[in-house]
Amino acid sequence: MKRRWASTVGVLGLCTALAMPVYAVENNTKTAEHHHDNAISGFIDYQELQKSLKQIEANSKGVVQVDVAGQSHEGLDIYTARVGTGDKVLLVQSEIHGNEKTGTVAILNLLKTLSNNSKASQQIREEVTVVFMPMMNPDASEADKRRNSLTWSEVVESYPQLSGATPSWNYLDRGISQSYDYGANPGFDVNRDFNPDLDYVPEAQDFPGASDEPGWFITPEAQTSRDVYKSLQDEFGTVDVFVDLHHQGLYYVDGTNDPVTLSLSAQFVPDPSTPEGADYAEYADNYNYDFSRQLNLLAYNELQSYGESKFTNISLYSQGLDLPGTALGSYALNGSGTVLFEVRGQTQSLGQKEKGQLVKSVERGLSGIIEGVSDGSVEELNPEAYEDIPLTAYRPAF
Question: How far apart are the first and last CA of the chain?
Fold first, then answer.
């Protein structure tokens, strides 16, 4: 596997049976004030999400199906919105980190487009099935923070076999200056709670784990994503594409002074067929890095097609990662082509500033992927061209 490394970027900032949705649930977790000075009212909160999904589903006249896939730690519904009837299935999730909000808005915009009566949308729906999970971690979204609020004692209560085990490495129970006070309200980074073994049951000997080891499915949010994924496997045989929508800090396109608008990536674990990926050898027949690279090229090429604009400030996220505890790493090992979106700026650093452009970047990149999978043009792309996408750099060039 040809691998490129970004020397200055850190690691990834990365169901139950489907039931009918319940709307207009009173939201008791909404906070009156946020823990930073940046306005975020322009983004979608939980109640607005419920209202929008209900309206989109009704206006679609059966084209969009909204379901409740599970509940968050604090009991808020986690929704799926499904559109299309094709044999090729794409799963797209957003806001597994609650302070990374542009993907949710982009998903709602895409649902409206994909469910309209245009010939193009009808053709796409005939070829693909797209399942969106627009707000994976509603508790954290409402509190405008990265992690959920599950405590370790609650985990042990659910899994008594973990009594006496050291809390997992992704559990934060200490405060962070200039950010959310997890000392007063601890919680887990949900996007480190995934495991390539989708049937894994937590065992004490696997704790506390580490960033380069699998997770445990101990959070209800990760369990819900996993169960949606498994239900699609049961229905379609495989989940062809998985896209995870995130935010990152302020970075630059390597060799330039241009701030990155969006970073992409296809690589989250070493190739299981190589010595570096020997720990994942049992998944070698499923792993398809070339297809992941082609999918990333769809998004990159679509954004580059807009000519001289900030939409062209696209780079590759850090490569050479070994993160099986992320959804992207686990689902890649289970046979999905994977794409990471990392938009510039979290709510703490940027708030809703440049929201319109950043949302449109995600929307256009996702559209490129969906259209390329639908019409088969993804198969015409040379995966090696992925290696020519510029890397992300921590500092601008001088």
Answer: 32
Q: Which helix (H) or strand (E) holds 262?
A: strand 262-265
Instruction: With residue 83 as reference, give the H or E element that holds it.
Output: strand 77-83
Within 10 angstroms of residue 135's Cβ, the number of other Cβ atoms is 30
Distance in angstroms (rounded) separating the CA atoms of residues 272 and 330: 12
Q: Estimate the crossing angle of helix 102-114 against helix 355-375, to 10 degrees.
A: 50
Number of helical H runs and strand E runs in the chain: 10, 12
Q: Which tens digits make up the pLDDT trace of 26-65?
A: 233 444 456 677 755 566 889 999 999 999 999 999 999 9
**Residue with token string 């989708």:** 198
Q: Is 282 left (phi over 0), alpha (psi -120 to 50) or beta?
A: alpha
- Interacting residues of 327 by C-beta distance below 8 A, sequence separation 6+: 14, 93, 96, 191, 194, 222, 225, 242, 244
- Domain 46-393 matching CATH 3.40.630.10: the answer reads yes
Read off the pTM: 0.90
On whether the CB atoms of residues 362 and 111 are closer than 8 A, the answer is no
Question: Residue 397 above 90 pLDDT?
Answer: no
- In angstroms, how far apart are the furthest CA atoms of the chain? 59
Q: Measuring CA to CA, how many Å separate 209 from each of 47, 96, 318, 331?
A: 36, 20, 22, 19
Tell me which residue of 361, 387, 394 sits closest to 254, measured CA to CA.
Answer: 394
> Are the C-beta atoms of residues 173 and 152 closer than 8 Å to each other?
yes
- Backbone phi and psi for residue 91, each to the nearest 5 degrees, phi listed first: -115, 125
Which DSSP state fits 203? -
Which structure tokens are listed for 202? 């937590």
pLDDT at 8: 32
Whether residue 99 contacts residue 145, with contact meaning beta carbons closer than 8 Å, is answered with: yes
Residue 197 amino acid letter: D
- Residues with a known catalytic role: 342
Query: Token pair of 327, please?
Result: 């959804």
pLDDT tens-digit series, residues 286-330: 999 999 999 999 999 999 998 767 778 999 999 999 999 999 999
CA distance 54 to 25: 12
Is the peptide bond prior to 208 cis by the omega test (within 30 degrees of 0)?
yes
Q: Residue 394, SS3?
A: coil
- For residue 389, the one-letter residue type is I
List all residues 6 or more positions away from 140 whose beta carbon is below 8 Å from its beta carbon.
95, 97, 98, 99, 146, 147, 148, 149, 187, 190
The partner residues of 64 in beta bridges, in order of sequence, read 83
